[in-house]
Amino acid sequence: MTSAQFECQYCTASLLGKKYVLKDDNLYCVSCYDRIFSNYCEHCKEPIESDSKDLCYKNHHWHEGCFKCTKCHHSLVEKPFVAKDERLLCTDCYSDECSSKCFHCKRTIMPGSRKMEFRGNYWHETCFVCEHCRQPIGTKPLISKESGNYCVPCFEKEFAHYCNFCKKVITSGGITFRDQLWHKECFLCSGCRKELCEEAFMSRDDFPFCLDCYNHLYAKKCAACTKPITGLRGAKFICFQDRQWHSECFNCGKCSVSLVGEGFLTQNMEIFCRKCGSGADTDM
């Protein structure tokens, strides 16, 4: 190489006895190289000159001294890190800021470790335990109460009520009747076996019946309309001797005026107001 060839490709200054940089088979003095080719540091925004180490990540560049965690400012050189929202974080800061916290111990659940999720909260696998026996629940069935989560055997031992019909544990809900408990699906009409949990019902000798079965088997019939008298929802009815009437059916057999709360007369099986019955032979 001649002295004429040993020149800066950009400014043509002689490079004899000077530092230079070779790039793409071309020679550059240090000043020209830095001015033309230097990358700019993401942190300090200054050029990363040829005598500095250039650290690159996803087409972004940093001085070695600027390559730090944006939260704790510790160097990330040759250390693991995570990029989040265009920020670089060391693994400790990323875990503290972004990882889930254990609902029990309140400590960070480190990335890569197994965590349990239940009702929107997270636990370390070793913290997600039965409140009674303190054994890990894992993916086994559980029952939750205000006091904590329980494995099924412990819940049955400590809290469970048993269905009066099937004798199995009632884990939630249920129906109470005559101080006894039923599963909703076990609380059935004693006549037709229809579910009663969403139905109005009557009882007879401590047995529940749907209205149809009760009316068919036990209800008195109105002497006027012959329909069953149930007394549901406070409905009123009239009794006289061995006969019953709905209050709205207890009317004069001639003029149909209501006899509820009024004096009345009877003749054979008929009832009359005093006016209509005054001229007839009556029983009372």
From TrEMBL:
<dbReference type="InterPro" id="IPR001781">
    <property type="entry name" value="Znf_LIM"/>
</dbReference>
<dbReference type="Pfam" id="PF00412">
    <property type="entry name" value="LIM"/>
</dbReference>
<keyword id="KW-0863">Zinc-finger</keyword>
<keyword id="KW-0677">Repeat</keyword>
<keyword id="KW-0440">LIM domain</keyword>
<keyword id="KW-0479">Metal-binding</keyword>
<dbReference type="Pfam" id="PF25076">
    <property type="entry name" value="LIM_FHL2-3_N"/>
</dbReference>
<feature type="domain" description="LIM zinc-binding">
    <location>
        <begin position="39"/>
        <end position="100"/>
    </location>
</feature>
<keyword id="KW-0862">Zinc</keyword>
<dbReference type="InterPro" id="IPR042947">
    <property type="entry name" value="FHL5_LIM2"/>
</dbReference>
<feature type="domain" description="LIM zinc-binding">
    <location>
        <begin position="161"/>
        <end position="220"/>
    </location>
</feature>
<comment type="subunit">
    <text>Interacts with CREM (via the third LIM domain). Interacts (via second LIM domain) with SPAG8.</text>
</comment>
<dbReference type="InterPro" id="IPR056807">
    <property type="entry name" value="LIM_FHL1/2/3/5_N"/>
</dbReference>
<keyword id="KW-0539">Nucleus</keyword>
<comment type="function">
    <text>May be involved in the regulation of spermatogenesis. Stimulates CREM transcriptional activity in a phosphorylation-independent manner.</text>
</comment>
<feature type="domain" description="LIM zinc-binding">
    <location>
        <begin position="221"/>
        <end position="283"/>
    </location>
</feature>
<protein>
    <recommendedName>
        <fullName>Four and a half LIM domains protein 5</fullName>
    </recommendedName>
</protein>
